[in-house]
Amino acid sequence: MSTAKKEYKRVTVKTLVDMKANGEKISMLTAYDYTMAKIVDEAGVDVILVGDSASNVMAGHETTLPITLDQMIYHASSVVRATDRALIVVDLPFGSYQSDPKEALRSAIRIMKESGGHAVKLEGGKEIKESIKRILNAGIPVMGHLGLTPQSIYKFGTYTVRAKEEEEANRLINDAKMLERIGCFAIVLEKIPANLAKQVAESVSIPIIGIGAGNGVDGQVLVLHDMIGMTHEFHPRFLRRYMNLYEDMTKAISQYVDDVKSVDFPNENEQY
Fold first, then answer.
1. Nearest 5°: CA angle at 60, between 227 and 159?
2. Cβ neighbours of residue 229 under 8 Å, at least 6 residues apart?
3. What is the distance between the alpha carbons of residues 81 and 78, in angstroms, rounded to a whole number?
4. Local structure of residue 271 (DSSP, 8 states)
5. Which of 27, 90, 119, 186 could be a cystine partner for 76, CB 3.0 to 4.6 Å?
6. Could you tell me what percent of the chain has a pLDDT over 90?
7. Closest CA to 132 of 119, 147, 117
8. HSE on the CB side for 67, CA within 13 Å?
9. Alpha carbons 183 and 88: distance in angstroms, whole number
10. Residue 222 near residue 211, CB atoms below 8 Å
């Protein structure tokens, strides 16, 4: 397997397809604000997902459902201003595309025009085919999302692994091929068996990006706040924490409080 890493000044949807063809894995992380997005971009991440997970990690909601289109545009605009290299993909939030292809197109156009994002991501397969086609026909790149689709959590009733049974696995494979056929440039597979994810990645020419889908796919995505350990209650098997910022930040802030209380801060060198 190739491990070649080509330098790209600006990652595009074509870049991702080329990366898959060349055997180069794709790195993807979420970001929701200017400061964090700037760090992620400068670190060399290929794709920044302005995810509806902002509903959880930024607003404290239990699910992704409450976040609105206006709020997604706000977060995406902040990320766009921070980045020079990464491809920026923006989630269409729950309720902005499921009921009507025309509404889906209007939502996607608003994101592209008002945020400056480069592509949109939609959850689902054949049930939202017409919405995806309408968006693609307008020239807007679309990333698909199959497997565990958090916007459908009340239908599933649980965040457990999806597509373990043959019927659902076959449906997922067919949906992935359909998404490729109608023009999606990539697909996120969330929380499905690794062998199935590998099979999907090998059956389509577009990149498959996994989260809890094993290492046989074309790239990986994590929620930034989970990966750097700002959140600490969430412990899925697929999550690797590269830092423990929750602990480090708590210590630093506690030290600041102590220093203020003891009049150690500011000292003579920290005042005018």
1. 65
2. 241, 242, 243, 244, 245, 246, 247
3. 5
4. -
5. 90
6. 86
7. 119
8. 28
9. 18
10. yes
Hey, what's the torsion of the CAs at 151, 93, 187, 11, to 10 degrees?
Answer: -150
Query: Which spans in 151-217 are helix H?
Result: 153-156, 166-182, 194-203
pLDDT score of 5 more than 90? no
Two tokens, residue 147? 């497997």
Q: Which of 114, 190, 247, 270 is catalytic?
A: 190
Residue in the structure block whose two tokens are 């993909």: 89
CB proximity list for 57: less than 8 A, separation 6 or greater: 32, 223, 225, 226, 230, 231
The verdict on whether 103 is a catalytic residue reads no
Q: Which two tokens stand for residue 143?
A: 């990333």
Bridge-partner residues for 190, per DSSP?
A: 147, 211
Residue 185 to residue 205: CA distance in whole angstroms: 9
Question: What is the 3-class SS of 114-131, one letter each residue?
Answer: HHCCCEEECCECHHHHHH
- 120-179 per-position pLDDT tens digit: 999 999 999 999 999 999 999 999 999 988 776 555 555 677 877 888 899 999 999 999
Structure tokens at 207: 């990149």
